[in-house]
User: What shape does this take?
Amino acid sequence: MTLTLKVDANAAYNAVLQQKQVPYAMNLAMNSWMFSTNKFLKNKIDNYLEGGAERYTKSGFRVDRVKNKRDLRGNLYVSLQHNKPYLDRYYLKNIIEGGKILPPTPTRRKLMQPVKGRVKLNAKGNLTKNKFSALRAQEKKYFYGIPKGREGENYRGLWQRMGVSAKNPSGKKIKMIIALGKESRRIRRLFPAAVLSKAEFDRNFWRHFTIQYRKAIRSAKKVSLSKL
Assistant: This one.
């Protein structure tokens, strides 16, 4: 996610009496707004994703704070990288901007899509870790592949045998519980993070500045008194 927001420093200088404290107040205000908005986005994304967002997904929202009043640059951004490449949050870019969903690791060629209502998911609506492997290992109840008599990758998946018995060891019928027929799929934007951030900036930045300017003034007075 790339969003550039510029603060009108002249407006700040024109709005206050003690202009010497404006750069320091701006430093404090930018950091205050970024951390506040970062928290806002982490909470807000739950309203846009069914079941809410995973904790790991939320950890992708990051802040590079403004270091000092002489270099008023900071970043509110989304980190897609991880020190282990197979744990990269590439999917977060798709959630925020839309795009193409691919398998999470190079060794997996197909997307794993649970069929709604047919397999137990976690509270966030996702397959739990190793769920597929655990089910596939139960060969009497499940099998992976394309069933006999059906053609095409749309039928590739993990299937459950229904009505298994000694008389019918393969079951009386089958149903797909996890689809694995697609190598990719398109997804629309689900979470308008940039739009929400811009709205938060327009609505709240100058409130943060006012609060931090007062702190800067109090801090300057303490410094002055300490020199007496």
Q: What stands out?
A: The chain has a mean pLDDT of 88.
